From TrEMBL:
Domain Endonuclease/exonuclease/phosphatase: 29-236
InterPro entries given in the database record: Endo/exonu/phosph_ase_sf, Endo/exonuclease/phosphatase
Domain of life: Bacteria
Protein name per Swiss-Prot or TrEMBL: Endonuclease/exonuclease/phosphatase domain-containing protein
Organism: Pseudidiomarina donghaiensis
One GO MF term: catalytic activity
Length: 245
């Protein structure tokens, strides 16, 4: 049901690597399929003007296959999880650094309520001194049992476990229960990931008093992190983190 069948838009126009000592912003946001609306684009432009970012990690992005959308000055790649006649939906990773690789992945299982998959994106961004930053943009499984959730994040772990360089794993993890939170914690510990602690956590989307959205990192120095209150646009607020390589 609604499984994507086409190659969706992507573009790679940047050649700039990340240099040691350089700082860059990361914006992570479940956009609730509102990416093509004027209100979303206006709020995104305002956020980027105030908090410059070199990475956008969007979940539930909605795009028209033939439309370049609102990112003409960005390199980007999309991992779709759904497709209709007019639109594709999924996670989108955009950057103003060079992509050396981008791999779209679909969950093995389908969600019980809607019989749809979830998706995640693996992207590699070259470092000037050699190696790469790996960025994993995740929209984790919902409406499945905790053991199925655990299996899906185990697949992600298998793909990225061998990466030796800096790492960012971010997105909407749907950890709305104690069991799911425990499995996510085990995932992070096994990869040496740290959680970016938000200055104002009350703005983070919660369900059953459990935060759903996170930015995790390894091999980087966190400079600041906060959640931006934009509740009039999406039911999730964007997370912002600034890192130094």
């Amino acid at each position: 049901m609604l499984k994507p069948k086409i190659v969706v838009p992507q573009q790679f126009i940047h050649k700039q690597p990340i240099h040691h000592g350089e700082e860059f912003g990361v914006l992570c946001w479940n956009t609730q399929k509102l990416t093509e609306t004027h209100s979303f684009q206006r709020v995104l432009a305002d956020i980027l003007a105030r908090y410059p970012c070199l990475f956008l990690l969007l979940q539930e992005a909605k795009l028209t296959p033939r439309n370049n959308w609102l990112l003409p000055q960005w390199s980007y790649a999309i991992a779709p999880n759904m497709q209709t006649r007019r639109s594709v939906y999924g996670v989108l990773t955009a950057s103003q650094y060079a992509f050396t690789e981008a791999h779209a992945r679909l969950s093995k299982k389908r969600e019980g309520m809607f019989a749809t998959h979830k998706s995640y994106m693996l992207s590699y961004h070259s470092l000037a001194e050699g190696g790469a930053l790996l960025v994993v943009n995740v929209h984790a499984m919902n409406f499945v049992r905790a053991n199925q959730f655990s299996q899906e994040i185990a697949f992600i772990k298998e793909e990225i476990f061998g990466h030796k360089g800096p790492l960012i794993v971010a997105g909407d993890f749907n950890v709305w229960s104690r069991q799911r939170r425990l499995r996510l914690l085990q995932f992070c510990r096994s990869l040496g990931l740290r959680k970016a602690i938000m200055v104002d956590p009350h703005h983070i989307k919660t369900y059953r008093q459990h935060p759903l959205d996170f930015i995790f990192y390894r091999g980087l120095s966190l400079q600041e992190a906060f959640a931006n209150d934009t509740s009039k646009v999406s039911d999730h607020n964007p997370l912002y983190a600034r890192f130094k390589l």
